[in-house]
Structures are given as C-alpha cells and as structure tokens.
Amino acid sequence: RVAVVGAGVSGLAAIKCCLDEGLEPVCFEQSQDIGGLWRYTEHIEAGRPSLYPSVISNTSKEMSAFSDFPFPEHFPVFLPNALLLDYLRRYAEHFNLREHIRFGTKVVSIRKHPDFAVTEQWSVVTETGGKQTLHICDAVMVCSGNFSEPSLPLQSFPGIERFRGQYFHSRQYKHPDVFQGKRVLVVGMGNSGVDIAVEASRVAAKVTISTTRGAWLLSRVFEHGYPWDMILNTRFMSLIKTNLPAPLSWWLINYKANRWFNHENYGLQPEKSWLVREPLLNDDLPSYILTGRITIKPGVKEFKDNSVLFHNCPEEEPIDIVVFCTGYIVSFPFLEESEVRVENKHASLYKYVFPTHLQKPTLAVLGLIRPFGAIMPVAEMQARWVTRVFKGLCQLPPQSVMEKEVNEKKKNQLQWFGLTFDEVLKTEWLVYLDTLASFIGAKPSVLGLLFTDPWLALTIFFGPCSPYQFRLGGPGRWVGARQAILTQWDRVLKPTRTRAPAASSSPFPSLLIVVGFLLLLAAVVFSF
C-alpha cells in the first residue's frame, strides 16, 4: 500500500505507475479536484500553488505528454492552463485514477512506524473535515510540489521597511488591473517575472525589471517556426552539448540564444555568459523593450520612501508597486526534518528522488527538479523507477555512493548553472530521463533500432526526444509508441495548418535522411 501525497502532475503519474506495477495507491489531495499547479482558482489557497489566468505552458504538447497518452491532435501546440488541466482530467479518467484519490484530505504528518526497523512501514496521519485518521502504508510518494511556499528574502533589500508603496510576492498575482497607471518594479527575472512584467506594461505607466544576473531568452516559436523544445531537445543536440569541450559548448549556447536578438543590446546578457543558466521563455519581451514599455535594470541597491536605487545607477527610480519574483522554498511540513534534509532551500536526494540515509528506500519525492524541458515526462519516469524500487525490482547503490553523488552534484551545478535560488534542482533534461530509463530497462537502443527499424532510429536520434521513446521497450511497453513517434509532427501542425492544404509534415529536409544515416552510424559507434 503506497501513500501518494498530492494529485497534481506528479501525483497522477505516481498513482498510474503504482497501478501498473500491481501496487495499491491511496492518494491524499487536500483540495477538491486534481491538477495541482495547473488548476486555476481566483482565490489563493493556503498550501496550494497559485497561478494567474494567462499562464501558458512553456513546453510543447508533444514534449509534455505522458509517455503512453498523447495530447489530442486538435489541442494547440503550447497550452493555456485550462487545456492542460483538461488533459490531466482526460488522463485520470482514461486510467481510472480518481477512484484512488481522497479529496479534501490533508496530510498532517508522515512518521516512521514504531516497528519501522522490522516492517519498514509508515504512519500517515490525515485530516478530513476536522477529523484525523491514521493510515499504515508500506511506502510513501511525496508529490506535493515546490510552488506553495514563497521565498521573500526582504532582508536582502535594504530600505524596504520604509518603502511607502505596495509590494507582494508573485504568488499573489492574478490580474494586471492592480498595475493600472502605476510605476511598477519587478524584482527577479524568472519566467513568472517576465510574464508579469509584460502583462503589467499594457496598463502600467512604467515597468522596470531588476535582474542581478541577466538571462538567456528563447521564444516558443523557434527555428523555422517550430516549437523550441522539439528543435533543441533531441538526442543529436544532447550528444553535442555533453561531448563538446566546455568553451565550444558555451559558444554554441551563446550563438543559439543570440540568433533571435543580441542579448547585450537589450540589457539581458547574463552577467557571466559562460555559465549556463536556465533560459526564459517569452515571446514578447524583446519587442516590449524595443518599444520602451519595459526597461531592464541591475540589481536593487536600496529602497527609498517612494523610489528605488539600483547598483551602478546614480539616479533614483520612482516606483509605486514592487513584485518580488524571488522563487519558492522547498519544504515538507508533514515530514520530520531527519527524513528529508533541506539545506539552503534544497533537499538532498539521490537522483532528486530518494533520501540517502534511509535503511530501506520506501520514501520518495517526485517532481522536485527543474529540467530544461517538460516536467510531466520527468515526473512520470521518476514514478516508474520509484515503483520498481518499492517492489525490489530495481536496487539503489550503497548509502555512501549516493551521498557522494549528491554532494558532487551540488558542486557541479554551482559551476555549470551558476548561483541562483534553485540551482541544485536544475539538470539536463534528456540525460536525466535516459539515466532513469536505463535503471528500469526502458531506454531506447538507437544502435539496435538502426538494424531493425532504421527510419525509427533516425527519427528518435535526430528528431525530438518525445516521451513515447521510453515506451518502445522494457517494462510498461506501449504498442502505440512507434506510431506516436512517427506522427508527432502531424499533431504539431494539425492545429496551426488550418488553411493550407495538407503537405509533408516533417521539418527535416530529405537530404538529412541520407546524411543523417551516415552521421548516426558514426555517432552510435563513439557514444553508445
């Protein structure tokens, strides 16, 4: 019996994977519906993520799908939050997941059972309608997300206590009306910060973004009009990024990011451009900077009564409202600190999933990761791995080995991604998926396919690494995986090609078939 905490993206994947492995999941969801982050509510609910109604997914539908459940072909390529929630509801209905969810049930505490050394069980206390209930479970999957507790480090902003204007964390933002005719300062340059700045600039008198480090900016509409992640997140591109010498890799990233526009000219160039930072996704920011709607400034030095002073800028900037887009705190209020250690806002977990100090791996955390790609396939792959670990079909390394890797990962992330609020959670999307897939025997063999199904091999190596690749073989094999891969571009073009007659849907020139075959032969020899 497996307790699943939360019925968002990770929780639904956890329930489904438990059922696939013959386990008995019981999911506790404190709200009255599924969806987690993607279920919009007008009012902010304690302990739940909060999003604004205009949120659109940053990853395309083909790259965001659960690996055995493609999005409907008529859905747009990038999804408004309401349609993404609709997809999650379809998923839950298709696999009969709702019957395993207890809504309106809050998890109060999760503790080791008194006989844990023998039974390896957990005592889970929940509360429904003011009444507490004890559940004894054999394993726990924590799927509560990390967008519920805002990080608002006011102590890092001198003078904020005397600022007479209004300020709030981005979690409280819903509609741009609050900015009408105001001078707005957005502190922080994550995806939410840029989104809010763009929306505010349509009604505000002036909008300024303050960023200490800058950022690379990508558009959802990438080369030749195709979705960015279907062009960048390929096995071929991953092979290049992970095998090129560091200076050459950094140059390639600079080149790719600056092909849209020169970041330095727009005040966005990362402070240390050789550090690879998570790119932001926004289609409007460059034009809004170009038309004067938004101004980019350095980090905040000090707040005054009705203004702000920036580093390296002698003049004060008058402001009325400050929006702090400063991220979130990782916390598990229902767990004892000894179970999942959180240090410097980060949980020390092997492969971002398992605590390293437990005698038996019967507690796992899902979705606590920031991949350079869609989170849904990652959470699903974590769930597939975790459930097989619970069953004893996959083994974890010794504790010392896991702890060493966790510590090394932290050091490497600081060097590779730079120091940010959530640097330790960031990872290379495809490399991580392949690693977990290899644990359960679901990583596709490009070399093997080259001899048995060469067209499919070329497609999965040079084309998008869509999640269906991880259902071609191994446990959980899906008979529709091959067809889903070969028709992925049809589903991308279906909602956009609404006037033009049908034509070839492949974005790759036919010459690539010949050249690609030769390159693939060389690639598999040296990398597989």
From TrEMBL:
Main location: endoplasmic reticulum
Catalysed reactions, semicolon-separated: N,N-dimethylaniline + NADPH + O2 + H(+) = N,N-dimethylaniline N-oxide + NADP(+) + H2O; hypotaurine + NADH + O2 + H(+) = taurine + NAD(+) + H2O; hypotaurine + NADPH + O2 + H(+) = taurine + NADP(+) + H2O; trimethylamine + NADPH + O2 = trimethylamine N-oxide + NADP(+) + H2O
UniProt xrefs under Pfam families: FMO-like (PF00743)
UniProt-annotated location(s): Endoplasmic reticulum membrane
Cofactor(s) listed in the protein's UniProt record: FAD
One GO cellular component term: endoplasmic reticulum membrane
InterPro entries named among the record's database cross-references: FAD/NAD-bd_sf, Flavin_mOase, Flavin_mOase-like, Flavin_mOase_1, FMO-like
Alphabetical UniProt keywords: Endoplasmic reticulum, FAD, Flavoprotein, Membrane, Monooxygenase, NADP, Oxidoreductase, Transmembrane, Transmembrane helix
E.C. number(s) listed in UniProt: 1.14.13.148, 1.14.13.8
An example molecular function term from Gene Ontology annotations: trimethylamine monooxygenase activity
Membrane-spanning intervals of the chain: 508-526
UniProt-listed SUPFAM superfamilies: FAD/NAD(P)-binding domain (SSF51905)
Family: Belongs to the FMO family.
Function comment: Broad spectrum monooxygenase that catalyzes the oxygenation of a wide variety of nitrogen- and sulfur-containing compounds including xenobiotics. Catalyzes the S-oxygenation of hypotaurine to produce taurine, an organic osmolyte involved in cell volume regulation as well as a variety of cytoprotective and developmental processes.
Protein name: Flavin-containing monooxygenase 1
Organism for this UniProt entry: Leiothrix lutea (Red-billed leiothrix)
Gene designation per UniProt: Fmo1
